[in-house]
Amino acid sequence: MGGPDKETGGGAAGYHEGSVDTVISVEDVNRQAAALAKQGISKEQIARLANNDPYVTIENLKAGYGKMEILHDFNLQVGKGQSLCLIGPNGAGKSTILHSIFGFTRIFGGRILVGEKGQQMDVTALTSKDKLRRAGIAYILQDKSVFPGMTVEENLWMGGYLMDSPKQAKAAAERVFDKYSRLAERRKHPARVLSGGERRLLEISRALVMNPDVLLVDEPSIGLEPRFIDMVFDILDDLQNTEGKTIIMVEQNAKKGLEFADIGYVLVAGSTAMAGPGDELLQDPEVGRLFLGG
Q1: How many helices (H) and strands (E) does the chain have?
Q2: What tens digit of pLDDT does each residue of 12-26 get?
Q3: Among candidates 95, 98, 101, which has minimal Cα distance to 114?
């Protein structure tokens, strides 16, 4: 956690899908994806996708790790209760966006705002703890972030570590158990015995203990069997459409991510090459060729 997006070597497979006959090197994917952005993406276009009423706004962000700048004047807007999916080739800066929102990167310029119009908070320089406590931003890590030796219940209690007392954390955990009976039935089981789908549910649930408004979700489908992938996306759909959570996601399964999300961004080399409604990007032939295996 905290490092730049991993690159694969030249000649590596294309973006997670496609047969041996359709292998595209990372360099080719980057070059061809960059060519899609002939006109560039205007701030007005980005604002329209958020219905001109953003809850999370990123303005001209320059960010990276150490002295390396990975995001270059990056802009993003997503409205309250909307979902946004970031896709693109390896090394494009997708996870760096989530890391920057949550405070895991070095910010060289720009700002990050969270909140309703007229009440936006500049969270750019806040610590990760303050972003969770004061701005309601929670980060759901990639796979294997549960504590395997702890019980399901104890893992949930850990989600309330910023609360004033253990009693509050336990009460919040009970509210999560009320929502997800599958976890409640396993509350005394060590997390290591859970299935892959149950572990992902626990990771999501632990983030919910603090009742955040914004969920940063990093690769929710990674390492899961198809039946568990559907379960995880059903959970995220419920959190967005029933509870009004705002979701910003990086998803290696571009098809699944764009099917789910209201908004999709295609990232190339730290900048946005394309942006549009998720279902429209899903139908774009060039996006399909480069990222959807067809």
Answers
A1: 12, 10
A2: 333 344 444 455 666
A3: 101
Residue 128 identity (one-letter amino acid):
S
Tokens representing 115? 């909140």
Contacts of 25 (CB under 8 A, 6+ apart): 10, 11, 12
In Å, what is the CA distance from 125 to each residue of 2, 33, 59, 131, 294? Answer: 16, 32, 14, 9, 42
pTM reported for the whole predicted model = 0.87
Closest CA to 275 of 69, 29, 87: 87
User: According to CATH, what is the number of the domain 20-146+194-291?
Assistant: 3.40.50.300
Tens-place pLDDT, residues 202-259 = 999 999 999 999 999 999 999 898 889 999 999 999 999 999 999 999 998 999 999 9
**Domain spans in the chain, listed from the N-terminal domain onward:** 20-146+194-291
Q: Token pair 């399964």 is at which residue?
A: 253
From its phi and psi, is residue 291 left (phi > 0), alpha (psi between -120 and 50) or beta? alpha
Contacts of residue 138, Cβ cutoff 8 Å, sequence gap at least 6: 132, 207, 208, 210, 212, 214, 215, 216
